[in-house]
Amino acid sequence: MLTAHQIIEGYLQGVFPMAEPDDDNTIYWYQPTKRGVILPEEFHVPKNLKKEYQKQAFELKIDCDFTATIKACSEREETWISDEIMDAYIGLHQMGFAHSFEAWQNKQLVGGLYGVRIGKIFFGESMFHRVTNASKIVLVYLMEWVAKENIQLVDCQFITDHLKQFGAKEIPQKQYLTLLKKAIAQ
Q1: What does pTM read for this prediction?
Q2: Alpha carbon of residue 70 to chain centroid
Q3: C-alpha span between 152 and 182 (Å, rounded)
Q4: Torsion of CA 75, 106, 52, 115, to 10 degrees
Q5: What's the domain count of the chain?
Q6: CATH number for 27
Q7: What would the 3-class secondary structure string for 81-141 be?
């Protein structure tokens, strides 16, 4: 059974867990050769999204409903977020390591993301949206928090076109491990 402590230890070593749906949700540890990251000083908000953010169409919250956020992230056709993974991250949340960043509209959770903070690094895990732009707005909200908390690195694990528009990039695992050590030490 996956534990919160195992996840923290994995992160400290540069690996992260994912359940494999085609293999009876067996959990494997991943260490990609190229790591998706956002360096806070390189974060960029597209002009159209900046306007959307300023409209304040969503009520933005942190840790209001972590369990609902992780469950919503798991509600995809194919997901690596098994019940075992959910339970472990809920445990991390109860320990104060895992956080959810949420977009609410009309008292409904319409977008969000979750991840883990250790030292000066935030390990982003997954995001979802039920309303257009909700997950993007939440990412901007996360990055405002990152700036306030002096977080030095946001680990995205894998790079996507969605994340590239915000300045996310791939770096070699060796460089990632160097940044990881520095961010953890602080």
Answers
A1: 0.94
A2: 10
A3: 9
A4: -40
A5: 1
A6: 3.40.630.70
A7: CCHHHHHHHHHHHHCCCEEEEEEEECCEEEEEEEEEEECCEEEEEEEEECCCCHHHHHHHH
Kindly tell me the sign of the dihedral angle through the C-alpha atoms of 126, 169, 149, 182. positive
Give the pairing of strands 108-118 and 98-105.
antiparallel
Q: If you search the block for the tokens 């190229």, which residue do you land on?
A: 34
Q: What is the pLDDT of residues 8-48, one digit of tens each?
A: 999 999 999 999 988 888 999 999 999 999 999 999 999 99
In angstroms, what is the C-alpha Rg of the chain?
A: 16
**Range(s) of the domain holding residue 51:** 4-185
For residue 23, how many C-alpha atoms fall within 13 Å in the half-sphere facing its CB?
A: 7
**What percentage of the chain's residues is helix, strand, coil (to nearest 5)?**
40, 30, 30
122: closest CA among 60, 68, 168? Answer: 168
Largest CA distance in the chain: 45
